[in-house]
Specification:
47% of the residues lie in helices and 10% in strands. Its main location: plastid.
């Protein structure tokens, strides 16, 4: 007798499987379907032992129909995401900040300052974007040719960018101020222009690092230098090379402020089809991650320069990420911030891509060059060099062990060679991962 299909085979019905009815006398009967004994499952209520089904699981579905259902599920999930996006935008529709902004000022003329100025100017051609510079020659060049010949000689800047060396002219009637001066020069610079700064002018910090002598973050340094503890403050950070931002390649960053309304305003000001901006209230986490990743990038460069391999690179960066998390959370940061754009995102970019200035410093150190020769040949500041010492001071203050970042600080201070640092790090006790 030919076997029936698996889906049509009902093994048995047994009256013994149902609870007995005391009012009804019934005989226990067991019914078997027409199927060979070899294909029947054992009856749990019978002492008779039957052969097990050779394929006790449902037969696989047709692969083509399964693939079609999977594609349909993916399409539906994507459509739901787009519907959610449209719904969220309609519920959170706020007046366009760009319509109410007539002027922004950018303090500094470096690569990232120029890229941000170009981005803001492109977002609204009618808005004045004023760049405050110290270099008179560069100032004249930008105004005459609309090119920053020092950093972007092949990029034409928008016509609504105006460069000036006058702090009074630059800051007059400004709605927002973007601070892109290197951290170690920020205090003296801000003090020199403080008389022209309106007490309610929002400052958006683009500078990453810690002031070496005071261990201050930019959120502490800017109000202190301006002698105004209530100066509105926002920090902008995340994985972003200036050249890719000015080339309008897709980029994502985060703005953090204690004032959520101000953070949303800066988000509106910066957001564009090629720049995605998230908001955060964790100013400490965003700033500490942005500062310490520069020191870690030097360590990554040293590993590359010494040709220690990919295993070593992965282990070092993972250890460095843990050290940043230990210190940041001790200082009050959220662990989730350190796994976001300003944490893991910025660390990956700075540690693994050759465009990173700090990584370049480490690479040349690992190859045997002297620090003073490296720095004298660079046209831009590598913040990680000066930040390293401040990081170690913070680690001591908060009682956090940071072997990798401490090794970087000792190499920079010429107290340890890269080779000796590697040997000592590899000889540390092998403990439980935390």
């Amino acid at each position: 007798m030919a076997a029936m299909p698996f889906s049509d085979r009902l093994v048995f019905f047994s009256a013994a499987a149902a609870p007995p009815n005391p009012k009804t006398k019934t005989k226990t009967k067991t019914l078997f379907l027409r199927s060979p004994p070899s294909l029947l499952l054992p009856c749990p209520c019978s002492s008779r032992s039957l052969h097990p089904d050779p394929y006790p699981y449902p037969y696989p579905e047709d692969s083509s129909s399964s693939s079609t259902r999977t594609r349909r599920a993916v399409r539906i999930a994507w459509e739901k995401l787009l519907r959610w996006s449209r719904s969220w935008r309609s519920r959170n529709n706020t007046p366009d900040l760009l319509q109410r902004t007539s002027k922004v000022v950018v303090l500094g003329g470096g690569s990232f300052a120029t890229a941000i100025a170009a981005h803001l100017a492109s977002n609204k051609p009618q808005m004045e974007v004023s760049m405050l510079l110290r270099d008179h020659r560069l100032c004249r060049s930008i105004n005459a040719t609309h090119v920053n010949t020092k950093y972007f000689p092949r990029h034409n800047l928008p016509q609504n960018i105006l460069a000036t060396t006058s702090a009074k002219d630059a800051l007059a009637a400004a709605d927002f101020c973007f601070h892109a001066v290197p951290v170690q020069f920020s205090s003296s610079f801000l003090q020199s222009i403080s008389q022209y700064v309106h007490p309610k002018l929002p400052f958006i910090s683009l500078s990453k690092g810690l002031e070496l002598n005071t261990l201050r973050m930019m959120s502490q340094l800017i109000p202190k230098a301006l002698a105004n503890p209530r100066q509105p403050f926002v920090v902008l950070s995340g994985p972003s090379f200036a050249v890719e931002l000015i080339d309008k390649l897709p980029t994502a960053m985060v703005v953090a402020s204690k004032d959520k309304k101000l953070a949303r305003a800066v988000q509106q000001l910066l957001a564009s089809p090629h720049l995605r901006i998230s908001t955060s209230s964790d100013v400490t986490g965003v700033e500490i991650a942005g500062a310490l990743k520069n020191v870690l990038a030097i360590a990554a460069g040293i590993v590359e320069g010494m040709e220690l391999g990919n295993n070593c690179m992965a282990a070092l960066v993972a250890q460095g990420c843990s050290e940043i998390r230990w210190l940041a959370t001790k200082m009050g940061a959220k662990a989730t911030t350190l796994s976001g754009l300003s944490g893991s995102g910025d660390i990956m970019l700075t540690c693994f891509v050759n465009l990173s200035r700090n990584r370049t410093v480490g690479l040349r150190l690992g190859a045997g060059e002297k620090l003073e020769n490296i720095l004298s040949s660079m046209s831009q500041v590598a913040e990680g060099v000066s930040t390293a010492g401040a990081v170690i001071a913070l680690a001591q203050k908060y009682h956090v062990k940071m072997p990798v970042l401490t090794a970087v600080a000792r190499i920079i201070d010429n107290e340890l060679t890269p080779n000796k640092a590697v040997l000592e790090l590899m000889s540390l006790p092998q403990v439980e991962e935390v």
